[in-house]
Amino acid sequence: MFKDKDRYLSILLISPSILALLIFVYGFIGWSVRVSLSNWKGLNPDYSWAGLKNYLALFSDPRFHVDVRNTLIFTSVFVVGSILLGFFLAVMLDQGLKGEGFFRSLFLFPMAISYIVTGVVWRWLMNPAEGSRMSGFNLLFTSLHLDFLVNKWHTTPIWGMAAIALAAIWQMSGYTMALYLAGLRSIPHELREAAQIDGANEIQIYRNIILPLLAPVTLSALIILGHMSLKVFDLIIAIAGKQLPLDVPAIYMWQTTFDGLFYARGAAIGILLLISVAVLIIPYIRYTLKTETQQ
């Protein structure tokens, strides 16, 4: 009797959260799907059926092709750079470095800053101006007589996305460092000692023991960073503004919906973004649940 009472009480306590989730998440997703299948353009709602017309128009839209290309470039540089730098920092901190707490906080601090603030700072650092208006990295390179490193940064087509990804790497590498550091600290020290007794050097230990054991951490970092990169918006706006060569789906969605008042097309872009994120998140959730069940 008491067990049933506790169960009903638990359901009652979480029911407001479940109701809010159903309405404000899944309800709005369903409404966005319906809008994306309509002809709504302008301030007055128009729910007349359009089928997949908005989606097909996006697939044949040159701007959307640019968006997909830019997203792939940004995601590749951001995810790979954050994981490599985060792992390197974690390995350095795992060596018993003096002042580890200070450095750990220092590397994690950028994560507490919003992308808007990061973008404003890095826009100055990556200032492409020349001559007397030169500042940031270009001025530093010139002062160090490294003129061959001076470049146009985010104003360069295609590779401008890679330059913007540097700011994102700076902000999120501390997070991946924390993930890897926790993973490294969870590996029994006896495994390393046994490998050293067998004659393995440090490189062999990391390649054959440490990295395989850190595979779940790497997977988690890939999923988290990957879904963040697919939704990037404010960082690009803060650094480069609204430029077609540096356009991404989130910016296209914003301009289509709120500047062009083409709500149906904007909803279609939003649903495609949701699907792209779900492609990453759902397999990861299934893998996590399967792993927990097996344990």
* Topology order in helix (H) and strand (E) letters: HHHHHHHHHHHHH
Radius of gyration: 24 Å
The level-1 CATH class: Mainly Alpha
Query: How many structural domains?
Result: 1
Q: What percentage of amino acids are in beta strands?
A: under 5%
Structural class: mainly alpha
Count of helical stretches: 13
- Main sheet characteristics: none
Number of strands: 0
Mean pLDDT: 89
Shape: flat
N- to C-terminal distance:
31 Å
CATH topology: MetI-like fold
Topology:
Elements: H1 2-36, H2 53-59, H3 62-93, H4 100-108, H5 115-125, H6 136-143, H7 159-185, H8 189-197, H9 202-213, H10 215-230, H11 234-240, H12 249-259, H13 263-294
Helix pairs in contact: 1-13, 3-7, 3-10, 4-7, 5-7, 5-11, 7-10, 10-13, 12-13
Describe this structure in words.
There is one protein chain. With 295 residues, the protein is mainly α. It has one domain: MetI-like (MetI-like fold, Orthogonal Bundle), CATH 1.10.3720.10. Helix content is 73%, strand content 0%. It contains 13 helices and no strands. Helix 4 runs antiparallel to helix 7, helix 5 runs parallel beside helix 11 and helix 12 packs antiparallel against helix 13. The chain is flat and about 75 Å long.
